[in-house]
Structure formats: structure tokens, C-alpha cells
């Protein structure tokens, strides 16, 4: 019982800690103006144009930290604070989302793989626990195994997301430095914003892998008792 309590505490604490780090870094560096004094929208447009991505639009989206790249419409969408903001955080996040647009244009392998896994991840997220719970209550290990296989697809999606996000951040740093969006003394602050954002994906992947391993152990226990 004690081991289960520790386990559940870990999978709850890890995401909360990651969100705390992200919001802390964002709140701190959204108050630090960048030397170029460019808005997030201007940073995104500058990097897109420098890479010949004139067909990718930049638009504003509601909310905080709702920034994303939409590959279907070829659009970089920035939350209001980052779209209009002149901060180091706004520049970093805008550059990161453009990093995804560059990946898309270059057919970056992990991004293509992640897109392929979207249907698998959706099915796994929606149906895995239904099958697992049926298996638990009915004592049918076959349903549990099927649920674990569905969940494995969703976990694979989380794991593949990691290189996609880290690569986008690396591209972002290269672009803001080479295009003079930030100065040398701002690189450390920019990296802190990008690294904090990456923690959310690391945390999500870690929790998903831990949960999958726990279910595999439960399934093996059911097999021994049958």
C-alpha cells in the first residue's frame, strides 16, 4: 500500500512541478524586455521570412501559453501576451513555434512520425482504460493486455514528442542568435524559458511510461495467478 501511495504521489507531483517551473520562468522573463524590442509576432515573421516560409501565417490566439504551430493551416499561433509582448519570453516562445514550422517544411522525421501516431494516440487515450477496467473487473487478462497495447501507442506518441520539442528549441536558439533577435547576454535567459517549457513534455512522457510499466507488472501478476 505504501509503495502505491508513493507511486501516485510521484505521478501527481512531477506534472505539477513541471508546470510550476514553466510558469515561473515565463512570469519572470515575460517582464524582461529583449534588446531588439521586437514583439513575438515580429520575431516569428522575421524567422519565417529568413527561412523562406512566406506562406506560413502568424496570428493571435486567446489564452496564456496557448502558443502552437498548426501544420494543417500552416500557421504559427501565439497567445496574446507573446504576440504583442517585447520580452525575452515572447521571443523565445515565438521562435520555438517557428521551429516547428521549419521542421514541417523540412519534413523532419520525428515530426512526421508524430503526425502518423496521432490517430493511434487518440484511440489509445480514449479506449485503453475502458478495456483495462473491463479486464480488471471481469478478471480477463486478455482485455488488460489489449488495453495495455492501446496505451503503448499513446505512450509512444509522448516519447516521440520529446525529440520534436527539443529540436524545435535548438532551432529557435540558432535562429534568434543568427538573426540578432537577442544579444549574447540574453542567450542564458532564452534557454531558461525554452528548457522550462520542455520540462512539461519530459514530465508527461515520464508519467506515461511509469503508468505503462505499472500496468505491465499488474498484467504479469494476473498471468501468474491464472
Automatic annotation (TrEMBL):
The keyword Zinc-finger is assigned to this record: no
InterPro entries: Zn_peptidase_2
One example GO MF annotation: peptidase activity
Source organism per UniProt: Bacillus mesophilum
Protein name: Zn-dependent protease
Keywords from the UniProt entry: Hydrolase, Membrane, Protease, Transmembrane, Transmembrane helix
Record keyword Transmembrane present: yes
Any one GO BP annotation for this protein: proteolysis
Pfam families assigned to the protein according to its UniProt record, in alphabetical order: Zn_peptidase_2
Annotated TM spans: 6-22, 193-219
